[in-house]
Amino acid sequence: xxxxxxxxxxxxxxxxxxxxxxxxxxxxxxxxxxxxxxxxxxxxxxxxxxxxxxxxxxxxxxxxxxxxxxxxxxxxxxxxxxxxxxxxxxxxxxxxxxxxxxxxxxxxxxxxxxxxxxxxxxxxxxxxxxxxxxxxxxxxxxxxxxxxxxxxxxxxxxxxxxxxxxxxxxxxxxxxxxxxxxxxxxxxxxxxxxxxxxxxxxxxxxxxxxxxxxxxxxxxxxxxxxxxxxxxxxxxxxxxxxxxxxxxxxxxxxxxxx
Length: 258
Prior knowledge:
- The chain is of the alpha+beta class.
- It has 2 domains: 5-122, Phosphorylase Kinase, domain 1 (2-Layer Sandwich), CATH 3.30.200; 127-249, Transferase(Phosphotransferase), domain 1 (Orthogonal Bundle), CATH 1.10.510.
- The chain has 9 helices and 12 strands.
- It has helices at 18-21, 28-40, 93-103, 129-134, 141-161, 197-208, 212-219, 224-237, 240-249, and strands at residues 5-8, 43-48, 52-54, 57-59, 61-62, 66-73, 76-83, 111-114, 118-122, 127-128, 175-177, 181-183.
- The strands form 3 sheets. Strands 1, 2, 5, 6, 7, 8 and 9 form a 7-stranded antiparallel beta sheet that branches. A 3-stranded antiparallel beta sheet has the order 10-11-12.
- The longest helix has 21 residues, at 141-161.
- It starts with a strand and ends in a 9-residue tail after the last helix.
């Protein structure tokens, strides 16, 4: 049974909370600076809960760049990304810019605010994409199609924007399915490299991912080679027609495109 602990921000400089605030190397001076940043963000307290642990404290997640926790603000529960003290970047500015770009086309959790060491955003409650795929029998086929179509539409929109997420070849930590699918975590995103959001998510869902065969069977897709050929075509054309052909083959629209 997971436990939770609500801690006011002034107490974050104490053990064991400072170990999360300044992960992985706690430092009092760094902690004081970061607490002042949290006050600017109007964060009142941190809710330590989650399957991932730092010591005895639960957190939402932990990666190479940041630790993710729940934060209580004047607006309710939010998600707070905390830059690791050993991160390969000096601030969260670039990730915040990428996140805001995605928000401009309706992709990603709603961005609230950021500072040098934090990003504050909307909290999304739901299943990881892999957890959702493992529960497919609980949903109607039409409901499944709706979620998949919405996810693919978001990835196509990112492609058209020129923003490559960078981690959708293995999206189990980067897509949450709530009332709708939500692409999260833009720390590896770039506008400098060739975009491949749609092709990567399709390859995971329908070709190489752990539930690909089951998903193809559910949607009545008989030949994965056709999908591979259409992915190659989309990579060359990257336009609406090549996208519609993919959707038609994946049985996510009723009619085929000649």
